[in-house]
Specification:
single chain; 283 residues; alpha+beta; Double-stranded beta-helix; 2 domains; 8-stranded mixed β-sheet
Length: 283
Amino acid sequence: MVKVIPVDAPIGAEIRGVDLSKPLDDDTFAAIENAFNDHAVIWFRNQTITPAQQVTFSERFGEIEVNAFNKFALPDDPKVLIVSNIKQDGKDIGYADAGSHWHTDMSYTATPPRMTMLYAIEVPVENGTPLGDTVFASATAAYDSLPDETKAKIEGLKATHRFAAKERGVKKPVALTPEQIAKNPDVDHPVARTHPITGRKALYVRTGECIGIPGMPDAEALPLIDELSDRIIRPEFLYRHRWRVGDVLLWDNAAVQHWAPRDYEWPQRRRMHRTTVNGSVPF
């Protein structure tokens, strides 16, 4: 029986009573999907799954999106991205600095992902304390908290998201190739997007990822982007996940932003497998 255990935050719930290594019947998956829509961040503890099982579970939510950094994908399955700081022969085996700044996954695409999933295989530990947490922010709660006049001001506005954005103090952790940049041209998305399933609105901007607001002078647009970005990450809107080996965690990119503080260093080892499920055009 599926049990949903919410945390004391605007987002986040643990799901119990599910073994993801086994096929899920429709009722079980429906309960999981409902919890995902309700809580935006959900996780399962003590799981042992293969890459194929992770792909199968991910595909229940939709079509898997192949990441732009797929050079770090599993050699035999491009749908599974390795997120890791582990080095072999002096080279990273995975995407080492994923999530090093606040963002929502792949907002620079025309159809940003619905869901991202991470499976924790190795978690760094220091003096018995796990390192490498991930912090999630409810962009929905942030929108709800806006004064009515601000909601009215941003209604109908779009922000320009740039894949190769390096402006305004946010440094991309991985060097981008001309081919990657060419495949990901600038895209405009609503400043406040509507969730395609719940209908709730969420702020969908981020300093360093958004370079402007069409039709608005930068002198006005950039401070507005900063103001909204700062609101999203207020402490009252956050959930911080402390990883354990065997965790499978999913987050809703239409409702949350996230950041992975880098509080560990090689040879402390971190390895996770990531899958990303495609979404729809934000509206």
